[in-house]
């Protein structure tokens, strides 16, 4: 139970799983771009005919913007949590770390950053006219749009979780779950 609790409240496990999934997706999309003839498909023409310098600058812009947004968002969130925890107790920070949506948001943004870095590294091969990973670049664009929506959700979620009625409701629910677990364990020992 202690190991499960440590994994559940860590900022490492869920983001690392998301990062591994993103690395697998990146490798899959790059291999599809490299070994398929999608660049010859007429209706996908817009994905595969672009300037490599523009693609490189787009990917570096996405990567730097993502890290800036993540650092500012989480810094502001920590300041808000610190102020709220001084009123409601330090348990609030643990609830924030335990929240799966916080871990998913962090994992998605780190994954987007790493994805763009990998594609930027692959831009050395963009000079060859035969290789432009259009599908992989479209994946970066889709992940960026998803990241923007996720950021809006995260800000709303944190603002909602810092309201006093929500904090009190969470404390009540945790107390009820703890009492039920204790009574269940006591019943098992008695029987």
Structural features, described:
This protein starts with a helix and ends with a helix. Helix 2 packs parallel to helix 6. It has one domain. With 191 residues, the chain is an all-alpha fold. The chain is built from 8 helices and no strands. The protein is elongated.
**What fraction, in percent, of the residue positions are helical?**
over 70%
In one word, what is the shape? elongated
Annotation field: number of helices: 8
Strand content: under 5%
Tally of structural domains: 1
* Radius of gyration, in angstroms, nearest whole number: 22 Å
Order of helices and strands: HHHHHHHH
Largest sheet: none
The average pLDDT score comes to 83
Number of strands: 0
| Terminal-residue CA separation | 22 Å
For this structure, the quaternary state is single chain
Task: Determine the structural class based on helices, strands and strand pairing.
Answer: mainly alpha
Regions with little confidence, pLDDT below 50 for 5+ residues:
none
């Amino acid at each position: 139970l202690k190991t499960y609790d440590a994994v559940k409240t860590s900022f490492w496990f869920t983001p690392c799983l998301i990062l591994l999934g993103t690395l697998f997706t990146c490798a899959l999309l790059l291999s599809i771009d490299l070994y398929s003839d999608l660049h010859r498909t007429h209706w996908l023409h817009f994905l595969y005919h672009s300037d490599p310098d523009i693609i490189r600058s787009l990917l570096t812009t996405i990567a730097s913007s993502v890290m800036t947004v993540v650092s500012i968002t989480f810094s502001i969130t920590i300041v808000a949590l610190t102020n709220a925890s001084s009123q409601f107790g330090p348990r609030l920070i643990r609830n924030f770390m335990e929240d799966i949506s916080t871990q998913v948001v962090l994992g998605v943004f780190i994954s987007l950053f790493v994805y763009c870095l990998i594609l930027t590294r692959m831009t050395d091969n963009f000079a060859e006219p035969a290789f432009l990973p259009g599908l992989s670049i479209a994946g970066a664009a889709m992940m960026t749009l998803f990241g923007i929506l996720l950021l809006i959700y995260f800000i709303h979620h944190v603002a909602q979780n810092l309201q006093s009625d929500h904090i009190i409701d969470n404390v009540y629910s945790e107390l009820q779950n703890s009492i039920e677990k204790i009574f269940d364990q006591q019943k098992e020992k008695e029987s």
